[in-house]
Amino acid sequence: MQLRNRGELHLLKEIRRRFSPAPDAPDSGVVIGIGDDAAVIDPKGKKVLVTTDMMNEGIHFDLAFSSPFHLGFKLVSVNVSDIMAMGGSARYLFLNISMKKDVDEAFFWELYEGIASAMELYRVELLGGDLTAALNDTVLSATVLGEGDRVITRGGASVGDRIYITQPTGDSACGLEILKSLTPQSREAVRRERFAATGEGDNGRRDLEMIVHSSATIVSWKRTKPLLARHLMPVARDPRPLLPYASAMIDVSDGLFIDLSRLCDESGVGARVYLDRVPLSDALRYAAEIMGLDPLVPATSGGEDYELLFTAPADSVPGAFCIGEVTGGERVVVDRDGREMPLRGEGYQHFGAA
Amino acid sequence: MQLRNRGELHLLKEIRRRFSPAPDAPDSGVVIGIGDDAAVIDPKGKKVLVTTDMMNEGIHFDLAFSSPFHLGFKLVSVNVSDIMAMGGSARYLFLNISMKKDVDEAFFWELYEGIASAMELYRVELLGGDLTAALNDTVLSATVLGEGDRVITRGGASVGDRIYITQPTGDSACGLEILKSLTPQSREAVRRERFAATGEGDNGRRDLEMIVHSSATIVSWKRTKPLLARHLMPVARDPRPLLPYASAMIDVSDGLFIDLSRLCDESGVGARVYLDRVPLSDALRYAAEIMGLDPLVPATSGGEDYELLFTAPADSVPGAFCIGEVTGGERVVVDRDGREMPLRGEGYQHFGAA
């Protein structure tokens, strides 16, 4: 059934029914939840963190690649990631969704399933939002509120700190390249996949092999799956293990080097990054070889990994890779032969010149 | 210059420069403002109110009627109105803006001027947001955070309470009808007008007369201006004078009767509304007569007035019109001859059947 035959009020009523918090949740901090003019929370003396992000059809996502489930999950993840990048814990979600009237109701509810799946993973509660018709593209935006005691900004790095990344980057950008090159059949098989948010579980597709379009190359589902999952359903990294160490932090949304440049801008520092220390996942190495790519390109300039990039005075931080150090000089990259080059903060820029 | 030649980062930097709070504002509650992964506020023990609303081109606005300045102002107003409808004070603003790459930079900055004008009026501070490209339509969304001590929900009305409205409704809907019927020249003159947010001031257009399209009727600028202003640049009503009285409250965004029905739903009560007590503005009476309309139609079912509709046990409330009473029975309207009819909560519904 198309949304035009359902009506906004029916949908809102159903969302409210499905997402109203259990009445036995006294520690939720929620004074007024979904359904009034505004939600009301009681932060009980804690600081409140707020972030908002938008995802537009044709710009941030392509419905030929992403299912509504993927989109819903990712919308929550990218916002939660911004809260986590400040060292906070995500608590509350507000959604703005606009789509065409002829969208099928099943699309709408699959989007909500993806949202609900992420809400469960991050333990965030839906407290409000807006649902409107659109003339053309589907536009999604979310606002996430969180809480935190110690806040870690982009501006706290000091000369002598080390630079760390939580996990290898580039997987998401490589996953997107794979998606673009798949045959329509392979792509649709990927689109139907609900990647387990933990990265485990195969949903019975253990033996799926995917065929790449132009070259008729066959790529292994099992080996490329982490890349596809990272692009379609990225999981925000929990910053809590890093809080005792981190002096400055940012999440890698636009690319390792551009986001490092932003951190350096705010901290007023330089950086030296060693290319041979930039971690690369096995999946990225595998796919890059097949695609004839240098894996360091997506690892340093690919966006949407949502790994945490941080600085810390410590010589090592459990669960993170040291890729360089904070300096008082220029921002440079050291290649495998020890040669220094300027670090270029390149990445995706909206409204950038074509 | 088109946005594609400017780049997102330049625009964001400029927004940050223009909107960063003055460093001598220690009571702002802002720990971290624009420019990090998330904003951080310290509510200092107060409750936090949160609302978010979207405005889509072709659905909520038509750029042939509204200037970017109008849109920016209205975007802030409709969100502030939701905070005020809970009895709160608006404090912080977050924006999501997406528009096509070929939009002229002047459009973008005029939008921001409208936003800044509303920010000044309501004393809200811009703390963050997202700026992205769009394939087709301009989509705007805002999130406003506020604070409040006593929160007034839609659910607090009791049998015997009176029903009040702050100012006449229907002006906005009638203003839209006038806009639709103007000649292109008259419409463009209205579009260029920056209505003073207070409703005062004429910007030297005191003598402008506007010509209505189909009938070649001339309407008076001075007499219709309040209607046009209410539609293009609605001002949210300050609830503070009502706080000692109000038991339940909602802002009239979709129409007086539909929003009253929502208040009744949440309070679990009935209502009796006297049509001859529904206030009508002089401007609405004037325009309705020219257009051959019953002014009660826009007054009871027209949307986007953003007046406050509330209930109170008191027999009278200064600065508000009593239009009826809360009952334990059905929701009824009493016409001028004393006849009762069912109150129909009709108003605009997204995804409603055509």
What does this structure look like?
The structure is a homodimer of 354-residue chains. In chain A, helix 6 (221-232) packs across helix 8 (282-291). The two termini of chain A are 40 Å apart. Chain A contains nine helices and 15 strands. Chain A is globular, with a radius of gyration of 21 Å. With 354 residues, chain A is of the alpha+beta class. In chain A, strand 4, helix 3 and strand 5 form a beta-alpha-beta unit. In chain A, the strands form four sheets. A seven-stranded mixed sheet of chain A has the order 10-12-7-13-11-14-15, sandwiched between helices. A four-stranded mixed sheet of chain A has the order 3-6-4-5. The first copy, chain A, has two domains: 3-148, PurM-like, N-terminal domain (60s Ribosomal Protein L30, Chain: A), CATH 3.30.1330; 162-172 and 235-342, PurM-like C-terminal domain (Phosphoribosyl-aminoimidazole Synthetase, Chain A, domain 2, Alpha-Beta Complex). The interface between A and B is large, with 76 and 76 residues. Strand 2 (39-41) of chain A pairs antiparallel with strand 3 (47-56) of chain B.
